[in-house]
Amino acid sequence: KKIYPDGHILCKICGDKASGFHYGVFSCEGCKGFFRRTVRQKLTYKPCANGDKKGCLIMRISRNRCQYCRMKKCLDTGMSHEAVRLGRCPKKDKPSRFNLFKISSNENHDRIDIDKQIKTEELILKIHDSFMAANKEFHALTCRYQQSKVLEVKCENDTKILCSRYLPAIVHFTTIFARDLTPFKKIDVHSQRNLVKQSLLEIAVIHSLYWNDETTFGKILDRFGYIVDILNCEQYGIFGQFLLDMFYSVQKLKKLELTDVELSVMAAMVLFSPDRPGLDIYKNTFLLEQMEDILCLALKSQFAQNHDNCEQLFTKIVEVLINLRTISGVYLEIILNSQIDIVDVS
């Protein structure tokens, strides 16, 4: 296997091992050279098709996909031609992220399993691509309601109608997100349906954070033809209480300031939970438990790259997921038995 010695810090742009402090930022040789060429040759790049707001995921295995987003990330992380101080990466600053990919060697010290790291990055990239594609489908579904008259929620029946529009869109989002993930295809159809159904409300909270940087949860619901005073909607029966609990869950998760990539991996963790009811334990348990381990590793690797408090943040995420599971347990069966059709979303 290809292995790198431990003791390197990460490139702030793509997450590869940094070779030094270049143009004001710890970066790898590839990103250093890319930035230098761009500045010296005064190159300009075609704007990203995804737009400036979301952009592309820049990782070692995808950094050459979009030069525009790569340069934008160079600038966003603080690269500057005026900041030319160079230096080797000190050992004491080695990142915890590489510790996630250690393997034992015959020399009795730890090395980094690059094959494992690359496979993890490839999985993250695929999950994020599927997450973004599903969001485009979700947006398309909301357009049909935006053309109609917007109403104000005034009674319990209004909240039920709103949920009858919102929840099928979330089912559609989850289905599109899941269907392109190779591990999901290996699961029998009955269990696939159970995984989507059982994870529905938890994924709804995580998904809303994708839009929540530009609007509030109430504004997301406005896309479905109703204006909601979210803090007062608990007076409108069980569906109003459900929307209020969703709002509070979104607000708690928002405080953790997760990236779109981290949200997509979290959504995959929820989707592949191995302890959902109705699964064929003999067919699926090993695959789902294996995916749970892989996705935990993937999420930790992203936290280590993007946040200073990796371990504390992961602990908070586990607490959030437990809380979401509790909320789902309160409302899911009520919703499934309420004559809201969450299956036919075409």
- Order of strands in the sheet with most strands: 1-5-4
Please indicate the percent range of residues in DSSP E strands (runs of 2 or more).
5-15%
Oligomeric description of these chains: single chain
What's the total count of β strands? Answer: 7
Low-confidence region ranges: 1-7, 85-96, 102-111
Give the full name of the CATH homologous superfamily of the largest domain: Retinoid X Receptor
**Element string (H = helix, E = strand):** EEEHHHEEHEHHHHEHHHH
| Rg, Å, rounded | 22 Å
CATH level-1 class of the largest domain: Mainly Alpha
* Tally of discrete structural domains: 2
Mean of the pLDDT scores? 81
What would you call the shape? globular
Helix content: 55-70%
The CATH level-2 architecture of the largest domain is identified as: Orthogonal Bundle
The separation of the N and C termini measures 46 Å
Main sheet properties: 3 strands, antiparallel
Structural class: mainly alpha
GO biological process, one term: negative regulation of transcription by RNA polymerase II
Domain NR LBD: 119-346
Subcellular location: Nucleus
Main location: nucleus
Provide keyphrases for this structure:
346 residues, mainly alpha, Erythroid Transcription Factor GATA-1, Chain A, 3-stranded antiparallel β-sheet
Question: What topology emerges from the helices and strands here?
Answer:
Layout: E1 3-5, E2 20-22, E3 25-27, H1 29-40, H2 67-76, H3 96-99, E4 102-104, E5 110-113, H4 114-146, E6 151-152, H5 156-179, H6 182-185, H7 189-212, H8 217-222, E7 226-227, H9 237-254, H10 260-271, H11 281-306, H12 310-336
Parallel strand pairs: 6-7
Antiparallel strand pairs: 1-5, 2-3, 4-5
Helix pairs in contact: 4-5, 4-10, 4-11, 5-7, 5-9, 7-9, 7-10, 7-12, 9-12, 10-11, 11-12
